[in-house]
Amino acid sequence: MAANRLIYLAALIAATTFYFASTLWFSWVILVVALALPWVSLLLTLPAMLCCRLTASAPALTEQDDQASFRLRLRAPRLLPLPELQLRLTLTLPSGAEDARYLSRLGRSEGRLTLPTEHCGQIAYRLDRGRVYDYLGLFWLPKRVAAPGPTVVLPHAQEPVPMPDVEQFLHLQLKPKPGGGYAEIHDHRTYREGDPVRSIHWKLSMKTEDLIVREPMEPVRRTLLLLVQTPTSDAARDSILGQLRFLSAWLQEHALDHTVAWMSGTAYHTAEVKPGDPDDRVVKLCCQAPPDSAPLPEGRVQADWVYAIRQKGGGL
């Protein structure tokens, strides 16, 4: 609003000069109006400046390349016109860079800023220097507003090339249940010394002339682990997290429990994913990892099947 003050100062100087240089009777009226105008503007605008409410909102989740907007709303009582607003919005982009924008002239009640969603990751917000001005833009009052939570931009799912071979895990494998007991699945074998008598299948034993026991079986629980390399550049983040989204959704579709591991800063995180879970839950957590996180400790992880999603191609 510095321009408004300069324009008013120039008008005040012109009115003062005209008053002293002119002998016309209305020169003093012009000077009085010039002197009183800022205070009249302040008195008319002050109720709206004190009573107006400012809120900010942004979507918590969006897809890459979708339209998403940061919204700023200014509200005042119905009988009071809206004052002028000025605010600085700082966006922290997925790459860690900051982008400062100055928002003003919201129109009647709302202002929108289109968010950069061409790359996946997290966009965080910081709001400061909020001010509401009178109608002439000469006086202002501070106006604080809470910044909304960050927006997570989910990547497009990308199939890894080559696609990892997980066909072996699609077939159910069984093993004898330790200690016996109840089980929905059973296998039959010949009697061994120490088997409980109640486990003998008498009808089948009479047909085979050997003692056959019913052995309870349980599924072999195999651990599948997806290691996600910490995203660095925008292109690498899009590729790595896109492959993670594809693989996690594929494993869920085939009813395969798996675990995702990633680094956030220097902290090692893991999250289990089961069929029926939202496929974007873990991807969202990985999108929030800072770009300067530590490398993955690949040598310390233990699982039946480990697949590392790297910038230069994944691998077992």
Features:
single chain, 316 residues, alpha+beta, six-stranded mixed beta sheet, four-stranded mixed beta sheet, 5 helices, rod-shaped
Describe how the helices and strands are arranged.
Blueprint: H1 2-21, H2 27-51, E1 53-57, E2 61-63, E3 69-75, E4 84-92, E5 98-104, E6 110-114, E7 121-133, E8 140-142, E9 151-154, E10 174-176, E11 185-190, H3 202-208, E12 212-219, E13 224-228, H4 234-253, E14 258-264, E15 267-273, H5 281-287, E16 305-309
Parallel strand pairs: 2-9, 13-14, 13-16
Antiparallel strand pairs: 1-3, 3-6, 4-5, 4-7, 7-8, 7-9, 10-12, 11-12, 14-15
Helix pairs in contact: 1-2
In short:
The protein has helices at 2-21, 27-51, 202-208, 234-253, 281-287, and strands at residues 53-57, 61-63, 69-75, 84-92, 98-104, 110-114, 121-133, 140-142, 151-154, 174-176, 185-190, 212-219, 224-228, 258-264, 267-273, 305-309.
Task: Explain what this protein looks like in three dimensions.
This protein is of the alpha+beta class. Helices cover 25% and strands 31% of the residues.
Poorly predicted ranges (pLDDT <50, ≥5 residues)?
none
Helix/strand-derived class? alpha+beta
Question: N-to-C terminal Cα separation, in Å?
Answer: 60 Å
Biggest sheet layout: 6 strands, mixed
Name the average pLDDT: 81
Q: Looking at the structure, what is the overall shape?
A: rod-shaped
Following the backbone from N to C, one meets helices and strands in this order, namely: HHEEEEEEEEEEEHEEHEEHE
Strand element count: 16
Continuous helix count: 5
Beta content? 25-35%
| Helix amount | 25-40%
Rg calc: 34 Å
